[in-house]
Amino acid sequence: MPSLKDLRGRIKSVKSTQQITKTMKMVAAAKMRRAEDACQQSRPYAASLGRVLNELAERVPAKGAPLMLRGHDNPQTIRLIMFGSSRGLCGGFNGQISRTAIKAIRQWEKQGKRVEIVTVGTKAYAEMKSHYGSFIVDRNDDTANNPTYEGAHALAEKTTTDFMNGTCHEVHILFNEFINVITQKAQLVQLLPFKAAEVEHTKGAHATTEYEPDEETLLKHLLPLNVATQIFAALLESQASEQGARMSAMDSATRNAGEMIKDLSLTYNRQRQANITREITEIVSGAEAV
To answer: Do 274 and 146 lie in a common domain?
Structure first.
Protein backbone atom coordinates (compact mmCIF):
# COMPACT_ATOMS: atom_id res chain seq x y z
CA MET A 1 0.00 0.00 0.00
CA PRO A 2 1.60 3.36 -1.00
CA SER A 3 2.06 5.99 1.67
CA LEU A 4 0.12 9.25 1.79
CA LYS A 5 3.23 11.12 0.67
CA ASP A 6 3.57 8.86 -2.37
CA LEU A 7 -0.11 9.32 -3.24
CA ARG A 8 0.15 13.11 -2.93
CA GLY A 9 3.16 13.07 -5.23
CA ARG A 10 1.38 10.85 -7.73
CA ILE A 11 -1.73 13.08 -7.76
CA LYS A 12 0.45 16.16 -8.26
CA SER A 13 2.29 14.48 -11.13
CA VAL A 14 -0.92 13.41 -12.90
CA LYS A 15 -2.40 16.89 -12.51
CA SER A 16 0.72 18.37 -14.09
CA THR A 17 0.46 15.89 -17.00
CA GLN A 18 -3.22 16.70 -17.39
CA GLN A 19 -2.41 20.39 -17.71
CA ILE A 20 0.16 19.60 -20.42
CA THR A 21 -2.23 17.41 -22.43
CA LYS A 22 -4.97 20.03 -22.12
CA THR A 23 -2.61 22.69 -23.48
CA MET A 24 -1.47 20.42 -26.30
CA LYS A 25 -5.11 19.80 -27.22
CA MET A 26 -5.74 23.54 -27.47
CA VAL A 27 -2.62 24.08 -29.60
CA ALA A 28 -3.57 21.18 -31.89
CA ALA A 29 -7.10 22.59 -32.25
CA ALA A 30 -5.74 25.96 -33.39
CA LYS A 31 -3.33 24.35 -35.85
CA MET A 32 -6.03 22.02 -37.12
CA ARG A 33 -8.37 24.90 -37.95
CA ARG A 34 -5.68 26.59 -40.04
CA ALA A 35 -4.74 23.33 -41.74
CA GLU A 36 -8.39 22.49 -42.42
CA ASP A 37 -8.92 25.89 -44.03
CA ALA A 38 -5.89 25.30 -46.27
CA CYS A 39 -7.31 21.89 -47.26
CA GLN A 40 -10.69 23.35 -48.12
CA GLN A 41 -9.06 26.01 -50.28
CA SER A 42 -6.85 23.56 -52.17
CA ARG A 43 -9.47 20.92 -52.95
CA PRO A 44 -11.43 22.86 -55.63
CA TYR A 45 -8.26 23.68 -57.57
CA ALA A 46 -7.00 20.08 -57.47
CA ALA A 47 -10.43 18.76 -58.49
CA SER A 48 -10.73 21.24 -61.38
CA LEU A 49 -7.26 20.38 -62.65
CA GLY A 50 -8.17 16.70 -62.51
CA ARG A 51 -11.32 17.29 -64.57
CA VAL A 52 -9.37 19.19 -67.24
CA LEU A 53 -6.76 16.44 -67.43
CA ASN A 54 -9.48 13.80 -67.69
CA GLU A 55 -11.02 15.58 -70.65
CA LEU A 56 -7.67 16.11 -72.36
CA ALA A 57 -6.66 12.48 -71.80
CA GLU A 58 -9.82 11.27 -73.55
CA ARG A 59 -8.98 13.30 -76.67
CA VAL A 60 -5.35 12.28 -77.08
CA PRO A 61 -4.55 9.04 -78.93
CA ALA A 62 -2.44 6.53 -77.06
CA LYS A 63 0.49 6.79 -79.51
CA GLY A 64 0.72 10.55 -79.27
CA ALA A 65 0.21 10.77 -75.51
CA PRO A 66 3.06 12.01 -73.28
CA LEU A 67 4.94 9.42 -71.23
CA MET A 68 3.39 10.77 -68.02
CA LEU A 69 0.00 9.78 -69.43
CA ARG A 70 0.60 6.57 -71.35
CA GLY A 71 3.16 5.16 -68.89
CA HIS A 72 6.11 2.80 -69.30
CA ASP A 73 5.77 -0.54 -71.02
CA ASN A 74 5.89 -3.46 -68.59
CA PRO A 75 6.40 -1.38 -65.41
CA GLN A 76 8.56 -3.15 -62.86
CA THR A 77 9.61 -0.50 -60.31
CA ILE A 78 6.95 1.16 -58.16
CA ARG A 79 7.75 4.17 -56.00
CA LEU A 80 5.60 4.81 -52.94
CA ILE A 81 5.63 8.30 -51.41
CA MET A 82 4.13 8.06 -47.94
CA PHE A 83 3.22 11.04 -45.78
CA GLY A 84 3.56 10.76 -42.01
CA SER A 85 4.11 13.20 -39.16
CA SER A 86 7.26 14.82 -37.81
CA ARG A 87 6.09 14.49 -34.19
CA GLY A 88 4.41 11.83 -32.13
CA LEU A 89 1.48 11.92 -29.68
CA CYS A 90 -1.09 11.76 -32.48
CA GLY A 91 -2.81 8.46 -31.75
CA GLY A 92 -2.95 5.93 -34.58
CA PHE A 93 -2.16 8.48 -37.31
CA ASN A 94 1.18 6.99 -38.33
CA GLY A 95 0.18 3.41 -37.60
CA GLN A 96 -2.70 3.64 -40.06
CA ILE A 97 -0.35 4.83 -42.81
CA SER A 98 2.18 2.13 -41.98
CA ARG A 99 -0.39 -0.69 -42.10
CA THR A 100 -1.76 0.51 -45.43
CA ALA A 101 1.75 0.78 -46.87
CA ILE A 102 2.74 -2.71 -45.75
CA LYS A 103 -0.42 -4.18 -47.24
CA ALA A 104 0.19 -2.44 -50.60
CA ILE A 105 3.87 -3.42 -50.69
CA ARG A 106 3.05 -7.07 -50.08
CA GLN A 107 0.56 -7.03 -52.96
CA TRP A 108 3.12 -5.45 -55.30
CA GLU A 109 5.74 -7.98 -54.28
CA LYS A 110 3.33 -10.82 -55.06
CA GLN A 111 3.05 -9.34 -58.56
CA GLY A 112 6.85 -9.45 -58.92
CA LYS A 113 7.31 -5.68 -58.67
CA ARG A 114 10.29 -3.88 -57.18
CA VAL A 115 9.24 -1.28 -54.59
CA GLU A 116 10.97 1.98 -53.63
CA ILE A 117 9.84 4.05 -50.65
CA VAL A 118 10.10 7.82 -50.19
CA THR A 119 9.08 9.01 -46.73
CA VAL A 120 7.78 12.44 -45.78
CA GLY A 121 8.12 13.03 -42.04
CA THR A 122 10.40 11.45 -39.44
CA LYS A 123 7.67 9.17 -38.09
CA ALA A 124 6.94 7.74 -41.55
CA TYR A 125 10.64 6.93 -41.87
CA ALA A 126 10.74 5.36 -38.40
CA GLU A 127 7.63 3.26 -39.11
CA MET A 128 9.01 1.83 -42.36
CA LYS A 129 12.67 1.48 -41.34
CA SER A 130 11.92 -1.54 -39.18
CA HIS A 131 9.86 -3.28 -41.89
CA TYR A 132 11.33 -2.24 -45.24
CA GLY A 133 14.44 -0.23 -44.43
CA SER A 134 16.27 -1.42 -47.55
CA PHE A 135 13.40 -0.14 -49.74
CA ILE A 136 13.77 3.49 -48.60
CA VAL A 137 15.51 5.59 -51.27
CA ASP A 138 14.81 9.09 -49.94
CA ARG A 139 13.40 10.85 -46.89
CA ASN A 140 11.94 14.35 -46.48
CA ASP A 141 11.70 15.17 -42.80
CA ASP A 142 11.24 18.95 -42.90
CA THR A 143 8.56 18.91 -45.60
CA ALA A 144 5.95 17.35 -43.31
CA ASN A 145 6.66 19.73 -40.46
CA ASN A 146 6.31 22.83 -42.64
CA PRO A 147 4.17 22.03 -45.69
CA THR A 148 4.76 24.58 -48.46
CA TYR A 149 4.19 24.54 -52.17
CA GLU A 150 7.93 25.10 -52.70
CA GLY A 151 8.71 21.90 -50.80
CA ALA A 152 6.01 20.01 -52.68
CA HIS A 153 7.31 21.35 -56.01
CA ALA A 154 10.87 20.25 -55.22
CA LEU A 155 9.68 16.72 -54.40
CA ALA A 156 7.49 16.72 -57.53
CA GLU A 157 10.39 17.74 -59.77
CA LYS A 158 12.61 14.95 -58.47
CA THR A 159 9.79 12.43 -58.78
CA THR A 160 8.95 13.53 -62.33
CA THR A 161 12.60 13.40 -63.39
CA ASP A 162 13.06 9.88 -62.03
CA PHE A 163 9.87 8.75 -63.77
CA MET A 164 10.89 10.25 -67.11
CA ASN A 165 14.37 8.72 -66.83
CA GLY A 166 12.93 5.29 -66.09
CA THR A 167 14.33 5.09 -62.55
CA CYS A 168 10.78 4.24 -61.46
CA HIS A 169 7.87 3.20 -63.66
CA GLU A 170 4.91 3.99 -61.41
CA VAL A 171 4.47 6.47 -58.56
CA HIS A 172 1.84 6.21 -55.82
CA ILE A 173 1.19 8.55 -52.89
CA LEU A 174 -0.15 7.44 -49.52
CA PHE A 175 -1.61 9.95 -47.07
CA ASN A 176 -4.33 10.40 -44.49
CA GLU A 177 -7.31 12.31 -45.85
CA PHE A 178 -8.89 14.65 -43.34
CA ILE A 179 -12.57 13.82 -42.82
CA ASN A 180 -13.12 15.31 -39.38
CA VAL A 181 -11.43 15.49 -35.99
CA ILE A 182 -12.20 11.86 -35.21
CA THR A 183 -11.85 10.32 -38.67
CA GLN A 184 -8.81 10.32 -40.96
CA LYS A 185 -8.89 7.93 -43.91
CA ALA A 186 -5.75 6.47 -45.51
CA GLN A 187 -5.74 7.10 -49.27
CA LEU A 188 -3.48 5.33 -51.77
CA VAL A 189 -3.52 7.25 -55.08
CA GLN A 190 -1.64 6.59 -58.31
CA LEU A 191 0.28 9.72 -59.21
CA LEU A 192 2.24 8.64 -62.31
CA PRO A 193 1.32 7.78 -64.94
CA PHE A 194 -1.80 9.92 -64.69
CA LYS A 195 -4.82 7.67 -64.31
CA ALA A 196 -7.91 9.21 -65.84
CA ALA A 197 -11.05 8.75 -63.80
CA GLU A 198 -13.89 6.85 -65.38
CA VAL A 199 -16.57 9.34 -66.35
CA GLU A 200 -20.10 8.24 -67.11
CA HIS A 201 -21.25 9.87 -70.36
CA THR A 202 -24.91 10.78 -70.43
CA LYS A 203 -27.00 10.90 -73.54
CA GLY A 204 -28.03 14.22 -75.01
CA ALA A 205 -26.31 17.48 -75.83
CA HIS A 206 -23.39 18.63 -73.74
CA ALA A 207 -20.86 21.44 -73.98
CA THR A 208 -17.63 20.91 -75.90
CA THR A 209 -14.46 22.75 -74.92
CA GLU A 210 -11.92 23.80 -77.50
CA TYR A 211 -8.34 24.10 -76.29
CA GLU A 212 -5.56 26.33 -77.58
CA PRO A 213 -2.82 25.19 -78.04
CA ASP A 214 -3.42 21.52 -78.87
CA GLU A 215 -4.12 18.83 -76.29
CA GLU A 216 -0.64 17.26 -76.44
CA THR A 217 1.07 20.59 -75.68
CA LEU A 218 -1.30 21.30 -72.80
CA LEU A 219 -0.76 17.85 -71.31
CA LYS A 220 3.02 18.29 -71.35
CA HIS A 221 2.55 21.42 -69.25
CA LEU A 222 -0.33 20.34 -67.02
CA LEU A 223 0.82 16.82 -66.11
CA PRO A 224 3.94 18.00 -64.18
CA LEU A 225 1.80 20.71 -62.61
CA ASN A 226 -0.66 18.04 -61.48
CA VAL A 227 2.13 16.08 -59.78
CA ALA A 228 3.12 19.13 -57.70
CA THR A 229 -0.54 19.94 -56.99
CA GLN A 230 -1.36 16.41 -55.81
CA ILE A 231 1.72 16.24 -53.58
CA PHE A 232 0.93 19.63 -52.05
CA ALA A 233 -2.70 18.59 -51.50
CA ALA A 234 -1.51 15.38 -49.81
CA LEU A 235 0.76 17.46 -47.55
CA LEU A 236 -2.16 19.67 -46.52
CA GLU A 237 -4.48 16.71 -45.95
CA SER A 238 -1.82 14.96 -43.90
CA GLN A 239 -1.14 18.06 -41.81
CA ALA A 240 -4.83 18.57 -41.01
CA SER A 241 -5.24 14.86 -40.24
CA GLU A 242 -2.22 14.89 -37.94
CA GLN A 243 -3.51 17.83 -35.92
CA GLY A 244 -6.99 16.32 -35.77
CA ALA A 245 -5.58 13.00 -34.54
CA ARG A 246 -3.38 14.79 -31.99
CA MET A 247 -6.31 16.85 -30.74
CA SER A 248 -8.40 13.71 -30.30
CA ALA A 249 -5.53 11.86 -28.59
CA MET A 250 -4.82 14.73 -26.18
CA ASP A 251 -8.52 15.07 -25.37
CA SER A 252 -8.64 11.38 -24.51
CA ALA A 253 -5.44 11.68 -22.46
CA THR A 254 -6.86 14.65 -20.55
CA ARG A 255 -10.04 12.75 -19.69
CA ASN A 256 -8.04 9.67 -18.66
CA ALA A 257 -5.87 11.84 -16.41
CA GLY A 258 -9.02 13.17 -14.78
CA GLU A 259 -10.20 9.62 -14.08
CA MET A 260 -6.80 8.74 -12.61
CA ILE A 261 -6.91 11.79 -10.35
CA LYS A 262 -10.35 10.75 -9.08
CA ASP A 263 -9.17 7.21 -8.37
CA LEU A 264 -5.96 8.37 -6.68
CA SER A 265 -7.85 10.95 -4.60
CA LEU A 266 -10.31 8.28 -3.49
CA THR A 267 -7.42 5.97 -2.54
CA TYR A 268 -5.68 8.86 -0.73
CA ASN A 269 -8.80 9.72 1.29
CA ARG A 270 -9.40 6.07 2.21
CA GLN A 271 -5.80 5.65 3.28
CA ARG A 272 -5.90 8.89 5.28
CA GLN A 273 -9.15 7.84 6.98
CA ALA A 274 -7.67 4.43 7.77
CA ASN A 275 -4.61 6.05 9.33
CA ILE A 276 -6.76 8.38 11.43
CA THR A 277 -8.95 5.47 12.57
CA ARG A 278 -5.88 3.43 13.49
CA GLU A 279 -4.37 6.31 15.47
CA ILE A 280 -7.64 6.87 17.37
CA THR A 281 -7.85 3.17 18.14
CA GLU A 282 -4.29 3.16 19.45
CA ILE A 283 -4.98 6.22 21.65
CA VAL A 284 -8.19 4.70 23.06
CA SER A 285 -6.46 1.37 23.67
CA GLY A 286 -3.62 3.16 25.46
CA ALA A 287 -6.00 5.13 27.64
CA GLU A 288 -7.89 1.99 28.67
CA ALA A 289 -4.65 0.26 29.53
CA VAL A 290 -3.75 3.11 31.88
So the answer is: no
